[in-house]
Amino acid sequence: MRLPDFFIIGAAKSGTTSLYKALSLHPELFFSTPKEPEFFARDDLYNEALDGYRDLFTEAQPHQVVGEASTIYTLSPHFPKTAQRIKQHTPDAKLIYMMRQPVARAYSYYVQVLKNYQNGTGDRGFHRSFEECIFPEQHNRSAGREKVFAPFDAHLPDVPELMLSGSDYLQQIRQYLEHFDKSQFLFLKFEDYKTNPEAVLLKITNFLGIAPLDMKDLGESDLKTNVAKDFYEARAQSAAIADFGKRLGPLWRAKNLLPDGLRRTARATLLRGLKPEPITPSPMQEATRKMLTERFEQQYGELAQLTGLDLSDWHVKKVAA
């Protein structure tokens, strides 16, 4: 019965899904399905016993290196037993930690929580601003968690620090260094992966001791990182098409008689005419950006020394979902 040889431990909204998709194409690697079992972080899952978690890896071949990619593994202090549990069951595991400019990551995580809510409930509204999520005085006066979190996110605590803890990389790394040697880590930057995915993927395969990934196997979708933009554009397009169909009435059903190719062409032509505008969450306020920038910049020197990463571009990175 196999357990992971390595973990992609985060950070959430730092390209880990793209990384998972790309690495899943490597014949020497086996990943769990789902991507994020979250087993070692969540008490409700961990208490169900290890056998169910092991079942996720039963199809791995003997020659394959086994991994999983749960980003809440670096969401301390909300899941404080994670590192200790991973050490207990997989003491020799390798840990891959990809980080993103912390202010950008925090806002992007906020957007992800809202996307989850909309997908999980069908409600298209935005019931909390970023500031209402992170500032205690605003958080206490804002909409309740049932208007922010999807039912499948019930394990996430509705506390002001939730959006920010995942960007406190020093805190997350220190949690693991209490149990793992630094040599078991590979530290990466999302920005480097976005600009040069081949170089970052080569670092990972070298770290895992396997052959380089054949980049010819990767499509554009395997390396895509800006999922939020696509999500809100697709939602706006679907709403515009539905509204047009409602106005057209019974004639709209005639589209089902068209061949698939012609129907796709007609849809694209219609969208060019409708020009739907995506409705997105409110942007971060400039005062908030300034405050968070000052908070996290204090860590850059020590973080760069600890990880060996060049963080100079983080001082000027634009916040984007």
Main features:
alpha/beta; 15 helices; 321 residues; 44% helix; five-stranded parallel sheet
Overall description:
- With 321 residues, the chain is an alpha/beta fold.
- The protein has helices spanning 16-23, 43-46, 50-54, 82-89, 102-121, 130-134, 136-139, 162-165, 169-177, 190-195, 197-208, 227-248, 260-274, 286-297, 300-307, and strands at 6-10, 29-31, 65-68, 94-99, 185-189.
- Strands 2-3-1-4-5 form a five-stranded parallel β-sheet.
- The relative contact order is 0.15.
Provide the fold topology.
Elements: E1 6-10, H1 16-23, E2 29-31, H2 43-46, H3 50-54, E3 65-68, H4 82-89, E4 94-99, H5 102-121, H6 130-134, H7 136-139, H8 162-165, H9 169-177, E5 185-189, H10 190-195, H11 197-208, H12 227-248, H13 260-274, H14 286-297, H15 300-307
Parallel strand pairs: 1-3, 1-4, 2-3, 4-5
Number of helices: 15
- Element order: H for helix, E for strand: EHEHHEHEHHHHHEHHHHHH
What distance separates the N and C termini? 39 Å
The helix/strand class is alpha/beta
Spatial extent as radius of gyration: 21 Å
Let me know the average pLDDT.
90
Biggest sheet overview? 5 strands, parallel
Shape: globular
What's the arrangement of strands in the largest beta sheet? Answer: 2-3-1-4-5
Poorly predicted spans: none
Strand fraction equals: 5-15%
